[in-house]
Hints:
The protein has 180 residues and is mainly beta.
Amino acid sequence: xxxxxxxxxxxxxxxxxxxxxxxxxxxxxxxxxxxxxxxxxxxxxxxxxxxxxxxxxxxxxxxxxxxxxxxxxxxxxxxxxxxxxxxxxxxxxxxxxxxxxxxxxxxxxxxxxxxxxxxxxxxxxxxxxxxxxxxxxxxxxxxxxxxxxxxxxxxxxxxxxxxxxxxxxxxxxxxxxxxx
Length: 180
């Protein structure tokens, strides 16, 4: 695996190191030793999947507050998505800044999202499936979120949002009341 730090400290884009032949390729998608050598969380407790049928579907921007903050390892296993993170750490020099990357089944990229970040994605293709591992269990009472279109965040989305849940569409704007 090839680890490339993003502009937001602690977050990494992870590329597969493919070993190929005429059958196709083999690559490790996760290795606890390699993650530990990078100083990254490697003890995930839950694996989640989501299927979004329509392009333009937006899921996010979600986070969990302490003490249930999550580290996530996100990968697209079918279709394509634009994955976005927002630095939610008030003591960080990149506080409330965002970073996005295109994850596709074809490119095999994964995004490592450390604790203290909000996360969401927009689908770019029909029947897009995301798979992600987390190091904390879902804790509804710790859940928070940001509006995908909050002007204070200025998140770039590559498409018009065509499908979004009521919950995600109605997180308060930062100026209306902090959700972190």
